[in-house]
Request: fold
Amino acid sequence: MTRSTVTRLLVGGFLAPEEVAPGERVVVNAWVVRHPDATVLVDTGLAEHLPPENVATMRFTRTPITDAIASAGLAPGDVDLVINCHLHADHAGGNVHFRGSPILVQPAELEAAREPDYTVPADVDLAEGRWEVREGEHEPLRGIRVIPTPGHSPGHQSVAVETDAGRLLLAGQCFRDASGFARAVT
Reply:
C-alpha cells in the first residue's frame, strides 16, 4: 500500500453569517498531501477579492495559500495536483496560483460554480484553470481516493488518504454540523 503524509495548513478564518451560526468563528484549512509519486494540495484557501460587504461583517483573516505552502517548504510549481472539496471562495480561493496543476472537481460542482454569486470566479480560476472533471468516486493516485459527499454543495467531494497512522478523511466542509448530517441521512 502506498502511504502519504499530510500537513494541515491554517489559511484563515471568518465570523459565520448571523443567519447561519451567530457568533461562531469558522477556521479555514488546506492540506498538503505528500504522496510518493506527487505533491497534492487539498483546498487552496480564501479568495483575495472577497466582496467588501462580506469582509466588513465577517471579519476575515487570511494567509495567502502561497505563504501557507511556503511554510511547508513548497512553491506553487511544486504542487502536482489540486483537489478542491468544493468551489466556494473559502476553499478554492487560491486556485489562481496553481494554473500549471490539474484541479480535480465533480461536474455538478463546476456547473454550480458558474452560477452568479456562488464563488469568486477570478480567484477560483473558473476561466483559466486546468480543470479535470471526474464524476463519482475515483483514485487519482494509489492510496488517495476522492469520494463524492454532496450536502454543503452539489458537487462536494472528500479525500481519503492512506497514511502510516491509518486512513485520514479530509472532508472540507461536507456538512456544517452533525445535525446537518443527521438531517441528510434521515
